Structure prediction request, 537 residues.
Amino acid sequence: MQYLLMIHVDEAAMQSAPAEGAAAMMSAYSAYTQAMKEAGVFVGGERLHPSSSATVVRMKGGKPSVLNGPYAEIKEQLGGYYVIDVADIDAAIAWAVRCPGAQHGAIEVRPLWAM
Amino acid sequence: MSGAALIAERVARESYGKLVAYLAARDRDLAAAQDALSEAFASALETWPKSGTPANPEGWLYVAARRRLADAARRRRHADAAAATLTLMQDAIEDPEADMGIPDRRLALMFACAHPAIDESVRAPLMLQSVLGLDAAAIGSAFLVSPAAMGQRLSRAKTKIRVAGVPFRVPDPEFWPERMDAVLQAIYAAFSRGWSESFSADGRGRGLTDEAIWLGRVALSLAPDDEEAAGLLALMLYSDARRAARRDPAGRYVPLADQDVALWNADAIQDAEAMLLRASARRRPGRFQLEAAIQSVHIARRVTGWTDWSAISLLYDGLIAMTRSPIVAINRAVAIAHAQGAAAGLAALAEAAESSTLDEVQAYWAARAELEARLGDTAAPQSYARAIGLETDPAVREFLLGRAEGLRSSRGFSVDGKRGRL
Prediction:
C-alpha cells in the first residue's frame, strides 16, 4: 500500500533555529531519504518552501479567486512530504517515527487511494 | 428450536470471532466478512434442518461465507481487477482445512480492533462486535450511545481498518507490551461497563461481563506468557466472584466491606488465585496484576475475617505510580482512611483533587462525604448531595440517601455504631 507522510512543523521555530541546527536537520533528512530508498519503500518526497510562499486558489461564482497565504493559518504547517510503498499501516508508522520531523513536529500518515 | 438450529447457534457463539478473523484477514474488510458470515448463518438455518447438519459445521460456514465474499467481490469490482483476488479465494475455498489449520486468528483480530490508529473509545465496542458478534444496538446501550451512533462509529472504524491498511496480525514482540495493553484495556473497558450495569433490568450488563471474561480467556490462551493478560483475567474473576453479594435479597446495594463472604463464589476465587499466582511468578508487575492483588486482599477476608488495609494502600501506591488515574487516587485515599484514619484519608483525597478535576466524579464525592461524616465535618451533607446527584445506579443512590439521612438523624455520625466504613 502507498502512504503519504505529511510533515507538519513549527515554521517560526525552524526559521529561528541556529545555522548548525539547520545543517544537522538537512543531513538527518538526507540520511532518512537514503534509508527509505535502500529499503525499497521510497516513491517520492519533497521539501516545501515556507507557508508564507503559499497561494490559495478557488473558483467563486465562476471566477477564480486567488489569495495570498496558506489554506489554514496554523502553527504547524505542512513543510514537506514523502510517499512510501509498504505492507501496512504498521510499516508506515514505523517510517513516520524515524522521520526527523517527528522529533519536533507531527507526521500525518494517510493511505493513498489506490486507482 | 430444532437440533440444526441449536447447532448453528452454538457455532455462532463459539466460532463467530474465529470465522470473522479468517474471513477478514485477506482484505481487512470486517464489514464484508460479517455480512458474508451472517448470510452463511442464514443459509445454514435454512439448509441444515433439511439436508442434515454437516460433520464440520464451522468449516461449512467458513466455506459458505467465503463463497459469498467472492461473489460480493465479483459484483463490486471490475472483472480483471478482481481476478487476482478471486484466484486466491478460490484456493482457499478448495482447501478450507489448510486455511483453518493455522493457529487461531482471533488474537490478530483483537489486535486489529485495538490498533493505536483506531479511536480509543471504539476499540472495546469494535472487539465485542467483531469477536463476539454483538449487534450495534446492544453495544450502544451498554456504552450509553444510541444504536445509530454506535453503528456509525463501528462502521467508521471498520472503514479505517480497511482503507488505512491496519493489519490483522499479532505484532512483533518489541511492540507487544504497548499493543497487548490496548487489547487488555479494551477487554477491561467492556468488563467495567458490564460491571456497572450488572443489575440493570434487561440483564445486558451481566452478559457483557461474561463476554469480557471469555475474551480475557481467549487472550490468555493465545498469549499464555503475558503476565498482564493473566492479571486481567484474575481481576475480572475476583470481581465477578462477588457478584451475588453486591445486592441484598431486597435488591439494595451492599458495599464491599459489608458483603456476606458466604455469597462469594469460591470456584471463581480459586480460579482467580491460581491466575494471579501464575502472573506474579513472572515478577513483572503491571496495572492489572496490582488491581487483582488488591481484590485478592479484599477476598482474604473470607478466610481471615478482617481486611489488611495497610497492604491495600501499599498496593495502591504502586498502582498510582503506574497509572496516574484519578479513580485509583480516590480508592487509595479510601484505603489510607481505613489504615490511618479519616483525617489522613481526607488529606489524600484533597491531594487527588489537586492533580485532576474530580468535581463530576461520583466516587470522589461519595468518599469525601463518608470521611467528612466520620470527622463530624459540617460539609458532609453537601458532599452526599453531590455524590447522590452524580450517581446513575438507583440502588447506590438509595444507599447514599440512607447514609445522608442517618447523618441528619444522629448528629456526630458514628456510622451505625460500627467502625466507620465505606
User: Anything to note?
Assistant: The mean pLDDT of chain A is 93. The two ends of chain A are 11 Å apart (CA to CA). The first strand of chain A starts at residue 2 and ends at 10.
